[in-house]
Amino acid sequence: MNRSSIFLAVILLFAGSVSLFAQPEISPERKQAIDSLALEKVRDLGKYISIIGNKDTPFSEANRVIDRALELFAEGSQMGVSSINKKDINYYGIREYFQRLMALNYDRVKIDWFNIQYISDLVRQPDGRYVGVITVYQRFTGESDDGLKYVDTTKKDITVYVERKQTQIQGRVIGFWDVLLGDIRVTETKPG
Description:
alpha+beta, Nuclear Transport Factor 2, Chain: A, 4-stranded antiparallel beta sheet, two-stranded antiparallel ribbon, 31% helix, 45% strand
């Protein structure tokens, strides 16, 4: 499902009545739809990271995918990067992370995401936004033609922001809940 289809589905799903604007809480039905959208965006991000990191992806295609992936994030978000060879976890702005991923010094890179699930339910913040956390496991494999191989599995926690937005469709203002991804924190890195 592409971003515009998801956006349209969300607008239609949440395009109820004007009283929607005054509604401070998310109904259980809407929450379920929002949870599904958040998980779908995380799955999309996993696919984008796999494409960007793949050495067979043409440069122009990788840059196009980077632009699509950036649309998933709240401004100022960062991605944690770890290694089994170092204790430190480095954090990069999302665009810089993607550019570094493209430039990795391997001949082949494979990145898979699995066990994607909520670990923290959505909690309303004083500013009206809801915040939750989705966890994901990432298996990274980098190989060089000279026989060098690096493999690790990293557990990452992804902050999810849900907030009210408005758009205009055929002259009518429609309110909807939007989901953006925030910082991605490394919580564990281990071999294989």
